[in-house]
Amino acid sequence: MLEIIKNTLTNNEIIGAIVSSVSIIFLGFYLRKKEILNSTASKVLTKVVLTVSLPALAFTSFMKDINGKELKEGLSILIWGFAIYIILIPITKFIYLKAKGDKQDVYRVLTIFGSTTFFGTPIVKAVYGTLGVMYANIFNIAYRVFLYSYAFIKMSGTKMDKENFKKNMKEIFLNPIILATFIGLFIWLFQDMLPQVAMPAKNGTKNVAFLRIDQTVPWLYNPLTYLSALASPLAWISIGATLAEVPFAKAIRQKDAWCYSLIKVMLIPIINIALLVVLNSTGILTISFAAFATTVIMMAAPTATVAAAYAINFDKESVFTSNCSLLSTIVAVAAIPVWIVVLEVVKMIGLFAK
């Protein structure tokens, strides 16, 4: 075990990913504190990440040849995405049994929904590459469905009537990241059935789907790769800048917010790990290490921005929610390196196929 940990801590790629994420988050914090980035610039930066860089990252991650193994993995991740959120709904009810009324609703929604898109995906990209990003975006399909349905109903206290249903469906399917995910997923799944184009290859030519723009229109694909490469650093700078805007003094004195943060960032990933180890070992849901690790990082993400916005907009424990968002982000920044090391230990043990 000690040898495995030693090998992990001396792996330049892993150390590079950890140092890059943490140092750039602190850079964003410094830039905001020094007013090099003002509050307007921070918000604009966040919008650029969410509407341009992350959609580009989502789309480009699907520009690859399809194979049976990855197709099966993708389906398993999609199933697990829906399953874990369904499982967490009653589990969080039990965890926060002592909390009552609005406080319990806020606890549960903030615990179930983490910042998988803005925080989790850039970390996955840094550590597990485009394959991890592809799995992350498939996993996030279920996340979006539950975030704009269950979380909205729970926080607003309203029923999902026809008007709210239409509104939330628009929020789900017109989101730039979801659009990019579905378009990329469609191309990846049906590339063998789409009209083919003969492209130069090492041994002559090969047929590829005309929508595989990474090969058929590389001059159009290249700008997307540049934009996707910006996703991680811009997201990390934005996270750091956001942390710099929130007052620490009051937040760090709120014990229940610290308790929530530890549950969100530590306990929820442990539940995810335990369930997947059992399902994988029994053959009920077999996945590879990359898919497994991706779900763990996503579950270890801090409070989701949309979930926090629901609480604040519907006036449910607004101050508590803000403190939870701040402290869970701090805990997540500290915990992500630990989780990456833990995941590498799991990889070396061989619980999941590589």
Automatic annotation (TrEMBL):
Keywords (A to Z) from UniProt: Cell membrane, Membrane, Transmembrane, Transmembrane helix, Transport
Entry's transmembrane regions: 14-32, 44-63, 75-97, 109-128, 134-153, 173-190, 224-246, 258-279, 285-312, 324-342
Keyword Cell membrane assigned: yes
UniProt main location, coarse: membrane
One cellular-component annotation, GO: membrane
Localisation per UniProt entry: Membrane
UniProt membrane topology term: Multi-pass membrane protein
Pfam families recorded: Mem_trans
Statement: the UniProt record of this protein carries the keyword Cell membrane: yes
Coiled-coil regions listed in the entry: none
GO biological process, one term: transmembrane transport
Designated name of the protein: Malate permease
Organism per entry: Clostridium cavendishii DSM 21758
Lineage: Bacteria, Bacillati, Bacillota, Clostridia, Eubacteriales
